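Tutorial, part two.
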Amino acid sequence: MPHSDMSFFSLILNASLLVQLVMLILLVASVFSWTAIFDRYKTLKEAKEESETFESRFWSGGDLGELYRRLEKDPTLEGQSAIFVAGFKEYARLREHEAEPMAIVEGARRAMRASMGRELDKLDNHLSFLATVGSTSPYVGLFGTVWGIMNAFQALGNVKQATLNLVAPGIAEALIATAMGLFAAIPAVVAYNRFANSVERLENRYDDFIEEFSNVLQRQAHASSRKA
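Running the prediction step on this input gives:
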């Protein structure tokens, strides 16, 4: 039976079971998407601030050994600080074994790149979920719309004369599924693009630091070998 109440919630309550299920899926996806958005925003903001703070300390001209000893004791070590600690730890270990200067530097670089990979994995967390929501939600909503419109037109077969009042509620409730699909997809796509760009910038920053720090370690390794 057609219903005259065209309010938003009434259309949802009077939609077919499958269309309601589609709306519920999109609502849950939207809630989890916004949770991921706030989580990634906080994480990436902290990673950027950590990187800026560390670089300020690293390039201040202080003793790198002392900086390493202070950071190594931090149980919450992450980001650029974790990369530095991994590299310096491997550098010190190889020096104790009196390895060749180039072997020392290459070992430290490999340790830093391994640490960078772990840090980037942390930053990339949830981004694949946002990409999935952004790419699939419109199609899920469209499926609900097509199904709802199909049911609306099938219902017209039971009446002798089709009028706008009979068709409008069914089509309107079906179109809500498309609207909810877009509501879930648009923020996820925008957030994914922004966060992916932020992760890429941090990756470039980490990569630049690894190369710069490797040069510093190379000079120190060669100076130590000449003294020996």
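The mean pLDDT is 86. In part three we will examine how such features are distributed along the chain.
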